[in-house]
Amino acid sequence: MDNGPETRKLEPGLPPCGSTASVRLQAVQARIASAASEAARDPAAVCLLAVSKTFDAAAVRGLAACGQREFGENYVQEALEKQAALRDLPLVWHFIGPIQSNKTRAIAENFSWVHSVDRLKIAERLSAQRPADMPPLQICIEVNVSGEASKSGVVPAELPALAAAVAALPGLRLRGLMAIPAPTADAAAQRAAFRQVRGLFDDLKTRDHALDTLSMGMSGDLEAAILEGATTVRVGTALFGERT
Ligand SMILES: *Cc1c(COP(=O)(O)O)cnc(C)c1O
Question: Cα–Cα distance between 200 and 187 in angstroms, integer?
């Protein structure tokens, strides 16, 4: 008999899936399904990355109890503490924040994915520091499609050269692109920015890169991103609540 989300236990180490986490997760999954359906895409082709920055290990454990596996973090020290507290769970960690040179070793040793590579020097360090007994670090290059509005991300004109150089590094596997367009409530403007990222992604694929990951869309604009081809949406607020 199914006793519902309050009492569902997925595996040892997990508390029951709580009702708030369950309701939020189902609401986000429903948004993804609805946008995918509108785009005539398979909702299973859109990966939900739960962005847990500023929320504690207990909050991550609570969402994991509801079945969520992929988590994104922006700050290295904060992430390492949570990872240590959650070692008993089979979670996949993505680094999505700005990367300082002195943090590349910790990222290379403790994450499966990095979405925010925008300089060759950082990519080279991540590759060199990736432990030989781990699979290659899965990489998305962050592109800046908002011009001066954003400081992070490579400008489109420099993307092909950076992608070629990253693809050649042995410790990394280039999977695709990530973007954080300037926030706007205007759905048409959201879609135009995501469409530009999609165009850059398609262009790279014609240059012999086997890319499969388009990481774009957050709590406020995930529908627009999915309509323009996002394969990973990075959602924080809609899953965990407002950050303080
Ligand atoms: C914080 C953050 C998110 C999540 O943003 P929400 O609006 O809370 O969903 C996604 N991507 C990146 C890179 C972030 O820093």
Answer: 20
